[in-house]
Amino acid sequence: GQNIDQPTEMTATEGAIVQINCTYQTSGFNGLFWYQQHAGEAPTFLSYNVLDGLEEKGRFSSFLSRSKGYSYLLLKELQMKDSASYLCAIMDSNYQLIWGAGTKLIIKP
Amino acid sequence: TAGITQAPTSQILAAGRSMTLRCTQDMRHNAMYWYRQDLGLGLRLIHYSNTAGTTGKGEVPDGYSVSRANTDDFPLTLASAVPSQTSVYFCASSPGQGSTDTQYFGPGTRLTVL
Q1: Residue B1 has pLDDT above 70, yes or no
Q2: Which of B44, B102, B107 sits opposite A45 (nearest CB)?
Q3: Are strands B109-113 and B87-94 parallel, antiparallel or unpaired?
Q4: Do B43 and A44 touch (CB under 8 A)?
């Protein structure tokens, strides 16, 4: 079967660093995506990993370990506007996205 | 460019009525998708189309139908709505078909079936 797990909710302080984990079990793997979704809005693309390692993009970084079925999204220098849900999604062997339920990140001043 | 547009923004529908959710993209993307998003669950794929003239079933296709007469439009029809179809519906598109291209989302339609 296919399964993607993320924490339901996390809280962090403005200016700090937060790591959002995603673990998965899938029958096929063509990469892992992270999306950001502000309340009442559409998901927007953040990152894509298909090889093991860390991909850095400004304040956001994403890590993948295929052997462990594990990824994380690292957000540095947190800003209030980073308050959102962060969605982990696996692209399966049919090039369809399988989505986790998302992690709601609350930033406190 | 507008990207992806969806209409209506929100709708309240009586059970048993039919409705079509509209989705249009101006990016000339080949692939288009319909998802529903419910509280506590991940986005779930309803139907998809890899290119104009073709459609496929996703994870939760029952009660929904789609058509893809041209590249730009991908309407989703509920033939006879039921309360369990109350959800937020997102349309998305990606450049390629059967590829790892990023999917881009429309603003969503919030549907309530009473």
Answers
A1: no
A2: B102
A3: antiparallel
A4: no
